[in-house]
UniProtKB/TrEMBL annotation:
It comes from Actinomadura soli. GO terms for molecular function: fumarylacetoacetase activity; metal ion binding. This is fumarylacetoacetase. GO terms for biological process: homogentisate catabolic process; L-phenylalanine catabolic process; L-tyrosine catabolic process. The gene is fahA. It comes from the Bacteria. Its EC number is 3.7.1.2. Keywords: Calcium, Hydrolase, Magnesium, Metal-binding, Phenylalanine catabolism, Tyrosine catabolism. InterPro entries: Fumarylacetoacetase, Fumarylacetoacetase-like_C, Fumarylacetoacetase_C_sf, Fumarylacetoacetase_N, Fumarylacetoacetase_N_sf. It is an enzyme of class 3 (hydrolase). Ca(2+) binds at residues 104, 177, 179, 211.
Amino acid sequence: MTRIAIPDDSPFGLANLPYGVFSTPGLTPRVGVRVADHVVDLTIVDDVFAAPSLNPFMAQGHARWVEVRERIIDLVSGDIDGAAVHPVGAVTTHMPFEVADYVDFYASEHHASNLGRLFRPGSEPLMPNWKHLPVGYHGRAGTVVPSGTDIVRPSGQRKAPADAAPAYGASRRLDIEAEVGFVVGAGSPIGAQIGVDDFDQHVFGVVLVNDWSARDIQAWEYVPLGPFLGKSFATSISPWVVPLLALESARVATPPQDPEPLPYLREKNPWGLDLDLTVSWNGQVVSRPPYREMYWSPAQMLAHMTVNGASSRTGDLFASGTVSGPDRDQRGAFIELTWGGKEPIEVNGAPRTFLEDGDEVVITATAPGPSGARIGFGEVSGRVLPAR
Ligand SMILES: O=C(O)/C=C/C(=O)CC(=O)CC(=O)O
Ligand SMILES: [Ca+2]
Ligand SMILES: [Mg+2]
C-alpha cells in the first residue's frame, strides 16, 4: 500500500481529478485519473474503466459521475494499492474519449469582431445574427487528435484577392485557434431539446482545444457555407478531461448580453467560466486569452445545438471558438495577434506571423479552485510538419 503525496498547491489535487486514457509498457490503454504527479488506474474502481475510452463511463450519466467522483476522492486520499499508481512521466496518454460529432462555435465577441474586420473589410464586423444565437458549424470528428500528435501542413486551393485564379499548394497561412471544448456524457434523443439549465446533466467535462486553421484555404473556400478544408485537417485536444463537477468555483456570469436572447437561451445561473489560457509559440508565451470574456456560455451553445431537435450523443465535442480578450496579448489566434500577418510579433527574437514547419504550439489553462490551489487543465500541444 502507498499514499499519494498531494502538495496543497497542486493543480491536480482532490478538487480537480481529471480523467484520461493511459497506457504503460505493461498495460493496455485504460481510464485513469490524474492526482498530483501520478495517474491512478481506475480499473481498481470499476470494470467500466477497462475500456480504452471514457465513453462507457460517461454514458452512465450524471448520478454515476457524482458517485464515482466521491469514491475516487476516498480512494486517493487514503492508502492505495501501489500497483495502481503510476508516475505521470511513466505513462503514455491517448485520446481520452471517442469523438462522436464535433461542433465548433464562434462565441468570443472580440475574436468574431477581429475576424470580421480581417476577412470582410468594409462591412460590419459582426453579422446581424451574432448577438441572437451562438454561431457555429459542424466540424470533422474523425480528425480530432490527441495532444502531441504532429500536424502535417495542409494543402489545398488558395487564392488571394489580387490573384486571377486559384492555385493548389501547401498552406502559407497556417494558424492556431486556442479554444475550450465541452464533452457530452449523456446525450439526448432525436426530437428532444436540451434546456439551457440542464447543461450540467449532459456535459461531463472540459478539454483544451487547438483548432488548427489554414487561413488562405479558409478565406477562398468559406463563402457561403462556412469553414471546410481550411479546418478539417486536424483539431488537437488535451489528454485530461476536467470534470464539470470540478468547476463550480470557476463559474462566473457571462458578459452582459444585449439584446436579451430568446427565452430558450436565457440561463437562470449563467455558465461563464473564469479560465486563464496561455498560448506558447516555440516555448515563448505570446498570448493569455481570458475565457471569462466569452459572450455565449457553453450551456447556451448546447441548448442552441439541440433546439431544432437534433440528437446529441456520448462523446459529442463542442468547442467554444477561439478565446480572445480585448487586449492584443489576449488574442487566441495568430491571424489576430499579427493582424492578418501585417504586424509581426517577436518570437525568440525573430519576427513571426503564421506557423513555419517545425514550430510547436502549446496551450494551457487553469481555473480558480475551491481553496487556494488552481484547477489545472494540463496542455494541448502540436508541432507542424512539412506538407506531403
Ligand atoms: O469569420 C469568419 O469568417 C471565420 C471565422 C473563424 O475562422 C472562426 C472559427 O473557426 C470559430 C472560432 O474558432 O471562433
Ligand atoms: Ca475554431
Ligand atoms: Mg481544426
